[in-house]
Amino acid sequence: MSLFEAHDLSVSFGGIKAVRDVSFTIEPGEVFSIIGPNGAGKTTIFNLVSRFYETDSGSMAFDGVDITGVPPHRIAEMGIARTFQNTELFEHETVLTNLLIAHHVHRRTSLVTDLLFLPGARRQELDFRRRVEDVIDLLDLQSYREQPIGGLPYGARKMVEIARALCLEPKLLLLDEPSSGLNPEETEDLSFWIEDIVEDLGITVAMVEHDMNLVATVSDRVMAMADGAELATGNPTEIQNHPDVLRAYLGD
Amino acid sequence: MRFVLKTNYAQDVNLFLHNGQRFWYGLLALAVLLAPLGLDRFYLGEFAYLYIWAIAGVGLMLLVGYTGLVSLGHAAFLAIGAYAHAWLLTQGVPFVLSVPLATAFCAVIGYLVGLPALRMTGIYLAIATLAFERIAAWVIEHWESVTGGHFGMRVPDPMVFGMSLDGPVPFYYLCLGILSLSLFAALNLLRSPTGRAFIAVRDSEVSAESMGINLARTKCTAFAISAAFTGLAGTLFSHRIGYLAPDAFTVQTSIQLLLMVVVGGLGSLQGVVYGAIFLGLLPQAIAIGRDVLPQWIGEIPGLEPGIFGAILVLFLIFEPLGIHGRWIKVRLWFDQFPLYRRATYKRQRSYLRTERVR
Hints:
The complex is a heterodimer of chains A (252) and B (358). With 252 residues, chain A is α/β, with parallel strands linked by helices. Chain A has two domains: 1-79 and 170-252, Rossmann fold (3-Layer(aba) Sandwich); 89-169, no CATH class. Chain A has helices at 42-49, 72-78, 95-101, 111-116, 119-138, 154-167, 184-199, 212-218, 236-241, 243-250; strands spanning 4-13, 16-26, 31-35, 57-62, 65-66, 80-82, 172-176, 204-208, 221-226, 229-234. In chain A, helix 7 links the parallel strand 7 (172-176) and strand 8 (204-208). Chain A is globular and about 65 Å long. Chain A starts with a strand and ends with a helix. By secondary structure, chain B is mainly alpha-helical. Chain B folds into two domains: 1-37, no CATH class; 39-343, ABC transporter involved in vitamin B12 uptake, BtuC (Orthogonal Bundle), CATH 1.10.3470. Chain B is built from 16 helices and four strands. Chain B has a two-stranded antiparallel ribbon with strand order 1-4. At the A-B interface, helix 2, helix 3, helix 4, helix 5 and helix 6 of A face helix 1, helix 8, helix 9, helix 10 and helix 11 of B.
C-alpha cells in the first residue's frame, strides 16, 4: 500500500488554476521529487498536503486515512513534517528551543502538570532533550546548539529546519527546495543527509527541488509538472529525457 | 567569562544554570525576606504594591512577550479579580478559597475573551481588548447589587485561620509569597510544551501549525493564563486599596501594565520585575522632582502621564528590549571585555521569509 495517495487534486486562486487534477502516490521508503519550472504548482501541492490550502476537488489519503478535511495541526500529529522554501524558524529562540518545540506532538503532560512541573513533566523534558540531541548528532549541529536563529548563516538555518522537522519523528518528510541558497558543497552534504534520513531513520522523503543534480542523485521517482498539471512521472533518467519535460523547460 | 560544562541533560531543564545564579538569586531571596526588619511601614507598603504589579505583569508578559498578542484590556482582569474576590469575601467565603476562585473566574473570562481574538493580531487585537475593558468597566459601574456601582464596596480584611493579614508585615509576606509562586509557575510553563507553544505562535504561526500546535487552543490558553495571573494580582490589589470603586481601574491602568512589560523587556520574566520596580519608583521620583524643580514645572497639567508616555516612546526607539535587554548587553560587555562587538545586537537583515500562506 502506498504511504500517500493524491487523487485528482485541484485548487485555484481567483481565475488561476494553480493545480489541475494532479494524482500521485508516494511509496514507503522512497525519495519522491517534484520538479518543474517556476509557477508550476509544486509548492502549492505541499501547501495542500499540509492543509494550509483547501482543495477545490480531489482527495488525499495518508497511511490509508483520508486527510482532505483534517485541520492543519493534526497533519503533524499524523506523521507528516515539512520545511519551508525560505525557512520559517522561530527567530528569537535558540536552535535547541526550536527543536524542542517540534516535540510538541509527543507531549503527554497537561497544562496543570506543566505549571507545577510535576515529576512527569520533568521526565518528559529530559526525554525530549535526549531525543533532540540525537537529531543534533545526526545533522552535525552541535556548534549551533545554543545560538539564537537570528544570528545563523542561511545554510545552517536550512539544516536546522530539517532537524526541526525530523524532531517530529514523522513518517513522511516534505522538503520544499532544501538546496535553495546552499553552496555546491552544502548541497552535496545535503544529498548524503537525505540518504541517511531515508535509510537510517526509515523516513519517506518527498521534495520539491530545482537542482537537477541533487534530484538525480537521491530520487527514486520524479514527477515533472508545468502550469499546474502533471507532465510525467518516472525514474530520474526517464524524466530528464522525456520530450514533454524538455519542452516545458526549454520551449519548442 | 563563565563557561558552563554540561554533563547531563538535567542542566538544560533545571531553573538555575550554574552555582553563580543560585548564589545571587539566594542572596536576593534573603534580602527580600529580611526587608521588613529594616524598612518602615510606608516602604513596606510600597514594596508590597510593587509585588502586586509584578504578579499582574507576569500575566501580561506571558501574553504580550511570549505569545505575541497585545492586550489593552488587562485592567479589566485586575478589576474582575478584585471585585470577584471582594464579593466572595462579603458572602462569607474564606480568604484561602476566595483567592483561587476569583483567579479561576478570571481564567474563564480570559478564555472567552480569547475566542473572538483568535482572528486578530496587532492593532486590531489591541482595539478589541480595549473594547472589552470598556464593557467590563460598564458592567462594574451598573451592576450595583454586586459591585456597589459608583459608590464602590469595602473590601473585608484578609483573614487566614482567624489571623488578619492586613498589617504591613503580613501583607508584605503575602504579596511576596504569591509573587514567588507566580514566577515559579511561569518559569515552569516556559520550560515545558505549553510555554514553548506560546513562543512558537509568537514567532511564526505557519510554522507552529506545521509543528502540530493548535493555534486556536494555544491562544485561548494564553489568554486564560494571562487573565488568571492578572486576576490573582487583582485579589491582592483589592486589599491594598481597601475600598473598590470603578475609577481605580481605567484605561490608564491597562497602559501602565503594558508600559511595565515593554520597559522591563519583552520576552523575559526578569523584565517584569524590572518594569514593576520602574513603575513603582517613577511616581516617587516625579513627586520628589516636583519639590526640587521650579514650581512652574511641577504645575504643568498632565505632567505624570506625559512623562510615562515619553519614557515609553524613548524605550521603543532606543532600547526595544527594555531594561532587561540593556542589562544583557552590559553583562556581555563585561564578559567579553575588551572584545565586545558593538554590532552584536544590531538588528540583522533578516532573510526573506516564506510568503505567507493564507
